[in-house]
Every structure is written in C-alpha cells, then in structure tokens.
Design brief:
The mean pLDDT is 88. By secondary structure, the chain is an alpha+beta fold. It is elongated. Strands 1-2-11-3-4-9-10 form a seven-stranded antiparallel β-sheet. Helix content is 15%, strand content 27%.
C-alpha cells in the first residue's frame, strides 16, 4: 500500500527579501545616476535677461551640457553659460565671438575678426542708428585660455564690450575658458 503524504498548510510563507533589497539598490542607483548626470553632464537653466533675444527668450528653460568643453575648446558662435565676472552668485549666457589668438575689432556695431567682417545673422539691434558704448572697440588680441563674448541683442546686452571691474574700474574684456559652465543646447 502506498504511503499517504500530507501537506501542512500552516507552514509560513517566506517573503522574497532579495527582491526588496534589489528594488532599494536600483532606486539608489537611479538617484545616484541622476545626480551624476545633473552634476557632470546636463543641467537645466532658465534665462532671465533679454540679452540673447531673439535666439533665446526670457523665461524659457534650456539644456546646458557640460561635456563638450572637457573634450574641445569653445568655438566662435557657441552659446555658453559662465559665472558673471562682476556679480556674485549670478550666471550669464552669451555667444562666443572670438577665441584665443584672434584679433577682434568692432567698428560701428560691425564685428571684425582678424580684419574680416564677421557674418552674424543672429544679431538684433533695437537701436541700430544710435552708437552706444561698446559699438566701437579698438583691436584686441584674445589671450590664451580666454574668450570674448557678446549677447545677440546687442543694444540691450552687457557683455565683454562694456564690463568693468567694480573695484578698479578696468575693463573685463575676456572670460577664462576654465570658467565656462557649459554649452547651451538649442532645439
């Protein structure tokens, strides 16, 4: 005769603890990954000044990627973010106009790089018949490791043409490449 086998229905069911640990690990990994991406690769910025209009509008948010300038130097016409050279805890967004080694000159609002007029189809002048401070600038050679930046809304932008040190009153014409926070991505 065959033996009868009985199952005890009061045996406790084991909970799958490794699944809970796995979920917690994946959650922490996701949070850490998001932190790394935000800190080292991509950030979101909001523009609060009309200095880059019509290219970049006030109040809009844009992506700023932080990897490009670890691989290569900035190029003319790149749009970059960097700490203000005169306002503490304030970042600015401007367009790179000249890079190290280039000679820059501004004559009646027209920009010349190495004696050749720069074609700038992105520039907007709200007062194109008025010559403002910075609309004429003697030739300047951009030093090594530096850039010269300007806003696209030229008549409303404070930029490399007219920044001055608060203490000494000397012009601040150039931004160190090492201070660039990232490149603005336009879609």
């Amino acid at each position: 005769m065959a033996k009868k086998i009985y199952f005890n229905s009061k045996v406790p069911i084991k909970r799958n603890r490794p699944a809970n640990i796995r979920f917690l690990f994946l959650l922490l990994l996701g949070v850490f990954g998001a932190f790394l991406i935000r800190h080292f690769a991509i950030d979101i910025i909001q523009v609060t000044s009309p200095s880059m209009q019509p290219t970049i509008n006030v109040g809009c948010r844009y992506y700023m990627e932080k990897i490009t300038y670890r691989i290569r130097k900035p190029r003319r016409k790149d749009i970059v973010a960097f700490p203000s050279p005169f306002l503490k805890d304030h970042n600015l967004v401007k367009r790179v106009i000249a890079v190290e080694g280039e000679t820059l000159e501004i004559k009646n609002k027209d920009v010349y790089i190495n004696n050749a007029k720069l074609v700038e189809d992105y520039v907007f002048h709200s007062r194109d018949t008025v010559i403002l401070e910075g609309d004429n600038l003697r030739p300047l050679v951009v030093p090594k490791g530096m850039i010269f930046v300007m806003g696209d809304n030229r008549d409303e932008s404070e930029d490399s043409r007219d920044w001055k040190d608060i203490n000494s009153g000397e012009h601040i014409y150039f931004i160190p490449v090492s201070r660039i926070l990232g490149k603005i991505i336009l879609f």
